[in-house]
UniProtKB/TrEMBL annotation:
This is Metallophosphoesterase. One of its GO terms (biological process) is cell wall modification. InterPro entries: Calcineurin-like_PHP (IPR004843), Metallo-depent_PP-like (IPR029052), UPF0046_metallophosphoest (IPR051693). GO terms for molecular function: hydrolase activity. PANTHER family: CALCINEURIN-LIKE PHOSPHOESTERASE DOMAIN-CONTAINING PROTEIN, METALLOPHOSPHOESTERASE. It comes from Streptomyces pactum. CDD domains: MPP_superfamily.
Length: 265
């Protein structure tokens, strides 16, 4: 990764989200940039495009992965939870320990691939208590916090809002809004989930509206950052739109594209 330039030289930051186990491309994500920003979702629990990949099929097989994807895609969440519960009961063992062990293996690989410097926040499928164990000295983890990169202030808010999916790092609306408030006015507002705008939260492949944040939308309108960057929605109806003075950008599904989004000034 290039050193951060002094004086009036230009700064280039690469931004990624929804890595979901793509360590191969993560190693190269910072090439040509002064810093890498990661907006979370390092873990691959289940690949909806390839049901043989992820923690779930590793534990229960591809056929069961096919079934749970079918149920979730049909929004039959209660049936999906019942199906999953039966699989765990049949498997025996400590469910939490099995998942944590698998996540730890992925985190060891993901964090080792991060370049220096990396600034990262959590996605909704991440397990925040484990991040401090794996983040090296070149990786700064931020959530409800700010940092200066190349003379611009970046604010970071991680996690997602509560949904029927019950992923590991979903929090209440008030807690999320408090983190947005703590960040305050910034040049670049970095979150995992998008603001609550229909075009930004609708996934054209899953054919459903994901959860966006109203508090984030209000903050964008009120504080007018130059950019609002996010991920979470893998195949959005609209990847980029302007809200007032702010350019809102879904930086892409890194797990499938392997390409960072670049911000330069």
């Amino acid at each position: 990764m290039a050193p951060t330039p002094p004086g009036n030289k230009r700064t280039r930051v690469h931004v990624i989200s929804d890595v979901h186990g793509n360590a191969r491309d993560l190693v190269r994500a910072g090439e040509g940039a002064d810093a890498l920003v990661c907006l979370g979702d390092l873990v691959l629990f289940l690949d909806y495009a390839d049901h043989t990949r992820g923690i779930f099929p590793d534990l229960f097989g591809a056929a069961n992965a096919d079934r749970i994807v079918e149920l979730r895609t049909a929004r039959r969440f209660a049936e999906a939870r019942e199906f999953g519960a039966r699989l765990w009961a049949e498997a025996g063992g400590d469910r939490a320990a099995l998942i944590e062990g698998a996540v730890r293996k992925q985190y060891a690989e993901m964090f080792a691939a991060f370049p220096t410097p990396t600034y990262a926040t959590y996605g909704n499928v991440d397990m925040p208590p484990l991040w401090r164990e794996y983040a090296g000295p070149g990786t700064t983890v931020l959530d409800g916090e700010r940092v200066e990169i190349g003379g611009r202030v970046f604010g970071f808010v991680g996690g997602g809002l509560r949904t029927p999916m019950r992923t590991p790092y979903e929090i209440g609306d008030e807690e999320y809004a408090a983190k947005i408030e703590a960040v305050g006015e910034v040049d670049v507002l970095c979150t995992h989930i998008p603001p609550e705008v229909p075009e930004l939260v609708y996934d054209t492949v899953a054919r459903r509206f994901e959860r966006g944040s109203r508090a984030l939308l209000d903050a964008i309108r009120r504080t007018r950052p130059r950019y609002a960057l996010f991920g979470h929605v893998h195949q959005p109806l609209v990847r980029r739109m302007r809200i007032g003075a702010t350019e809102c950008v879904n930086v892409g599904h890194f797990a499938s594209t392997g390409r960072p989004w670049a911000l330069e000034w």
